[in-house]
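Q: Please design a sequence for this.
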């Protein structure tokens, strides 16, 4: 160690001694130390550049000497280390050997937090502006990079590592991608097969992607990256991503060790370095108008948000980047994919991001969020409701929607007869067209359930349309029409009201008679059995059964929940679904599926809000009170301390801006947060709640209890753990 073989010269030893003396005398707070608070620190900052250079080298020697003594604690060297790091931010006249010695010193430090890596990078940058890169410097830069990559990986350390590689001109031989994942192997292979400028442009772009920070791209970063995409060519860039992105969901090509019953299996996760690059590549799709790119982003987001045991979502930052890019896309393809993600992704934080991205797209189009969701449903090439026809050479192809989540691809011979397999001529001469139609079929199978859920949620949004608007957005839409034509709709024209369904090209009532009085002034809304007399509801059920119409969700057969005498007595709350034991994790999943907000409860000293459903169209908030069940950690909880079971209690309604209720994790009842946001407000009497709202909320609560109840678990036939719930 070169630094240890030199004596620390004066006056720099005196400066160091003064810093240490002030620290011992507690002249300043060690953990908030700033040089301006220290007389010695101010003297060092006022010194000449040459003196500051000598101080840095002296400080490095002193730190090495101190830490060669086992009894030295890190906090005893805090002031010297911090002053050294501060001075290193300045451009000082370091010589080649000085830089080598400082890099050696940094490598010897046992922790990344005390290594001064950003300061070392600045010293290197300043030195390399005026001097060449020598083998000695390259060797030390490689060693420092290795230290960073072998330590705990963070966004900061990965960025520092990428910058060191760039300064050492290592990027020409080593790309930032880590092999072992299907997509990274494909990217390394594709780029490795390129030559000259094309390869250099890709490597440079990936290096910039590796250094991308934050949740959104900065203007400077985006500008630099876009200039590199221009070198590559946007069509070439898009084709590469269309090849790589679908591979992200495939298993690793090289297994890695790790994971346990408390930790996620690393083979199910994304390599951190690769995830950073994927995040940035997703950002760069924001300007694309290619529907296939939007589709690839949607698929990548689903893969990133997929839950992994002991972890949760697989890679949130990649999923969030996809959502942001879809919201920034200039055409409707991005909004369509966001609608699909909104229905399929149940992760709460992701839902907020998706809604924000949809709001951004809506604001750009000058529409409301719900309007942009309605008008942006892609048609996927369907020329009429539920059907797409195309000629591939002499053969015909029909893509037909056959159900709420099913499609069928039919091939037709030149003589009009069906063809079972894909004809050889189509494989040879029309492979791209066939591939696109198959991709559309896959997307339709994802989009149809998403649209079904969106339409069902309209019950609690008080949504209605003019007759022409409704026909364009629902009845005659190539995709949404396959659902809307199997639903009952309520029509209002001045004083006249009726219900109808699409049948044989016309809108008819339950008796099969055409509703001839519909015109452009008619208002349309989704029909609910709560709005009809029981005899009318039964008649609709019989008519639909007779015509064998299978509705996309329960409508004519929808459960209806009326206010009971017991609830009129309790006035402000319902005990209809109280005193049940339910499985917490299953309940939490059901809440997410139905749009309720809920937090998993742990056996800790903390407070939790009830499961809540916000109803902004009605100015209401519904609450389902639940509490953790059990007292035995490990028996009544998971290893992580999460309650296995919950006890259900009341259902209540509040004004949407009312202060939230909270209950302790261990029980004790709910109460309004004393210093919480919102106005102090008591519960609303159940008789004031609109009957449709009450019915839909009670339907959800019934589903939660009916599905998640431990009564469905045969292992609880004897009363559960130790028979403690035998009476349930």
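A: Design:
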């Amino acid at each position: 160690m070169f630094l240890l073989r030199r004596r620390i010269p004066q006056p720099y030893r005196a400066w160091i001694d003064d810093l240490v003396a002030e620290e011992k005398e507690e002249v300043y707070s060690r953990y908030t130390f700033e040089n301006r608070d220290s007389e010695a620190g101010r003297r060092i900052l006022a010194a000449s550049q040459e003196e500051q250079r000598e101080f840095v080298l002296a400080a490095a020697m002193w730190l090495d000497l101190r830490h060669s003594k086992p009894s030295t604690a890190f906090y005893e060297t805090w002031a010297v280390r911090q002053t050294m790091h501060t001075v290193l931010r300045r451009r000082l006249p370091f010589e080649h050997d000085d830089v080598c010695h400082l890099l050696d010193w940094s490598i010897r430090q046992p922790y990344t937090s005390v290594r001064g890596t950003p300061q070392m990078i600045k010293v290197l940058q300043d030195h390399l502006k005026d001097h060449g890169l020598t083998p000695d410097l390259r060797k030390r830069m490689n060693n420092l990079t290795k230290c960073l990559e072998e330590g705990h990986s963070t966004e900061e350390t990965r960025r520092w590592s990428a910058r060191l590689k760039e300064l050492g001109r290592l990027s020409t031989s080593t790309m930032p991608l880590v092999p072992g994942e299907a997509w990274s192997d494909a990217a390394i292979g594709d780029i490795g097969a390129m030559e000259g400028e094309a390869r250099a442009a890709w490597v440079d772009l990936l290096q910039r992607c590796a250094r991308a920070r934050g949740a959104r791209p900065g203007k400077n970063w985006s500008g630099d990256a876009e200039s590199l995409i221009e070198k590559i060519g946007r069509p070439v860039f898009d084709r590469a991503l269309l090849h790589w992105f679908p591979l992200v969901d495939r298993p690793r090509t090289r297994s890695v060790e790790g994971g346990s019953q408390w930790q996620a299996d690393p083979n199910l996760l994304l390599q951190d370095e690769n995830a950073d690059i994927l995040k940035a590549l997703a950002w760069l799709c924001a300007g694309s108008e290619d529907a296939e790119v939007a589709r690839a982003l949607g698929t990548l987001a689903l893969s990133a948000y997929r839950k992994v045991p002991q972890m949760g979502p697989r890679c949130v930052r990649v999923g969030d980047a996809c959502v942001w890019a879809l919201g920034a896309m200039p055409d409707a393809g991005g909004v369509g994919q966001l609608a699909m993600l909104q229905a399929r992704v149940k992760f709460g934080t992701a839902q907020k991001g998706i809604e924000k991205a949809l709001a951004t797209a809506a604001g750009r189009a000058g529409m409301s969020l719900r309007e942009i969701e309605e008008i942006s449903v892609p048609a996927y090439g369907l020329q009429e409701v539920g059907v797409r026809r195309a000629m591939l050479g002499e053969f015909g192809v029909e893509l037909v929607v056959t159900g709420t989540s099913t499609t069928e691809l039919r091939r037709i011979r030149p003589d009009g007869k069906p063809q079972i397999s894909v004809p050889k001529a189509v494989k040879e001469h029309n492979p791209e067209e066939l591939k696109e139609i198959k991709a559309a079929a896959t997307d339709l199978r994802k989009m149809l359930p998403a649209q079904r859920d969106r339409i069902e949620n309209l019950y609690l949004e008080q949504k209605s349309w003019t007759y022409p608007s409704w026909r364009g957005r629902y009845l005659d839409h190539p995709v949404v029409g396959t659902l809307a034509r199997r639903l009952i709709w309520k029509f209002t024209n001045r004083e006249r009201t009726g219900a109808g369904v699409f049948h044989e090209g016309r809108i008819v009532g339950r008796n099969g008679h055409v509703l001839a009085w519909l015109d452009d002034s008619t208002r349309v809304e989704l029909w609910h059995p709560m709005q009809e007399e029981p005899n009318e509801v039964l008649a609709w059920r019989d008519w639909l059964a007779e015509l064998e119409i299978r509705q996309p969700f329960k409508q004519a057969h929808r459960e209806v929940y009326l206010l009971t005498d017991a609830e009129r007595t309790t006035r402000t709350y319902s005990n209809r679904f109280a005193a049940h034991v339910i499985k917490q994790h299953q309940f939490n999943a059901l809440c997410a599926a139905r749009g309720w907000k809920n937090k998993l409860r742990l056996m800790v000293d903390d407070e939790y809000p009830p499961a809540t459903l916000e109803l902004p169209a009605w100015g209401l908030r519904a609450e389902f009170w639940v509490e953790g069940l059990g007292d035995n950690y490990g028996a009544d909880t998971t290893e992580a301390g999460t309650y296995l079971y919950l006890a259900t209690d009341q259902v209540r309604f509040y004004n949407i801006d009312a202060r939230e209720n909270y209950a302790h994790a261990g029980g004790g009842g709910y109460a309004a947060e004393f210093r919480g946001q919102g106005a102090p407000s008591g519960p609303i009497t159940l008789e004031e709640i609109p009957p449709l709202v009450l019915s839909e909320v009670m339907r959800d609560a019934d589903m939660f209890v009916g599905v998640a109840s431990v009564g469905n678990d045969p292992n609880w036939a004897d009363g559960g753990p130790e028979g403690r719930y035998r009476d349930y």
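Q: Thanks. Anything notable?
A: The radius of gyration is 33 Å. Residues 1-5 have pLDDT under 50 and may be disordered.
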